[in-house]
Write a structure and sequence with these properties.
about 40% strand; alpha+beta; 9 strands; 6-stranded antiparallel beta sheet; 2 domains; elongated; 3-stranded antiparallel beta sheet; 3 helices
Length: about 150
């Protein structure tokens, strides 16, 4: 009986080591599989939301995200829209671009970004567009968040 218990103990220890190693080496695979099966997504307040429009300028691309008013429960009165420019190597020193975020055919705001200093300015023609929250230097480009008021 003692030999059987020690044998089973050794088998369990070897199995635990194998399981631990498989979990460690397969961590990336298992995490992706868990996300794929559960449908978990990154919060749009962190990611900027889904990209709704991309404009190719040749050397770089502009990506406009959807307006984000999401809250833990329901929606907030103020939100933002995120604009990304990438790749960093193709960006001019000053970018000035207009956007129609609500798809009404009229330009709602113009963002001017100095990629050398990171300073961004806003010219708004829509009262729902409030101000620039912040400009972000990303790994391979720039992003600007423009504050919006819920219509």
């Amino acid at each position: 009986m003692k030999k059987l218990k020690s044998f089973l103990g050794y088998i369990w220890a070897v199995a635990a080591i194998i399981i631990a190693l498989a979990t460690f080496f397969g961590q990336s695979y298992f995490s992706r599989a868990l996300v794929a099966t559960t449908g978990i997504t990154v919060n749009p307040r962190y990611s900027g939301g889904e990209i709704i429009k991309t404009v190719d300028h040749g050397n770089y691309k502009t990506a406009m995200h959807r307006p984000v008013f999401d809250a833990l429960i329901g929606q907030t009165k103020e939100g933002f829209i995120q604009i990304n420019w990438a790749p960093a190597a193709g960006l001019p020193q000053v970018i000035s671009e207009g956007f129609d975020y609500n798809s009404d055919g009229k330009e709602d705001f113009i963002v001017t970004l100095n990629t050398a200093t990171g300073k961004a300015t806003l010219a708004s023609s829509n009262p729902a567009v409030l101000d620039i929250e912040k400009s972000y230097h990303l790994k391979n480009g720039w992003a600007v968040r423009v504050l919006l008021k819920q219509p």
